[in-house]
Amino acid sequence: MTHREARIRWWEPAPATLGEAMLFQTRPEGLDLDAPYDATNHPGYADHHPPVFFGHYWNGGEISPERPNAVCLDYSVAKPGGLLVG
Fold first, then answer.
1. What is the rounded CA–CA span in Å between residue 75 and residue 84?
2. Which structural domain range is residue 68 located in?
3. CA angle, residues 21, 26, 54, in degrees to nearest 5
4. According to the per-residue pLDDT averaged within each range, which of 25-29, 46-50, 76-80, 82-86 is highest?
C-alpha cells in the first residue's frame, strides 16, 4: 500500500483492527477493515502526552479531536468544500 492510499492513525493507543489503525482517503475495495492489526510496533499516543496538532491527513466528517490531546487541523482544505480547522 502506498502513502497515497492510507495513513497510520498513530494517535490511537491500541488499535485492534485495520479499520481502527488506518485512515483512508479512498477506501480500498476488498480490504477487510475488521482484519486484526498487528500492533507490536504501533506508536500510539497516550492521554498523558502533551497536546499535539497535526495536518496533511485530509480528514472528513464531523470536526472533532481525534483524542483528548491530538487534533487534526486538515479536513481536505484543498478539495471543494474542504475545511481548514483551527
1. 6
2. 50-86
3. 55
4. 46-50
- Same domain? For 1 and 37 the reply is yes
Q: What is the pTM of this model?
A: 0.73
Q: Is 7 exposed, middle or buried (0-12, 13-18, 19+ CB in 10 A)?
A: middle
- Whether residues 54 and 32 share a domain: the answer is no
Q: Which amino acid is at 35?
A: A
By 3-state DSSP, what share of the chain in percent is helix, strand and coil, each rounded to 5? 5, 20, 75
Give the tens place of pLDDT for each residue, 17-33.
998 998 877 777 788 88
What single DSSP character describes residue 43?
Answer: -
Residue type, position 57, single letter: Y
59 shares its domain with 75? yes
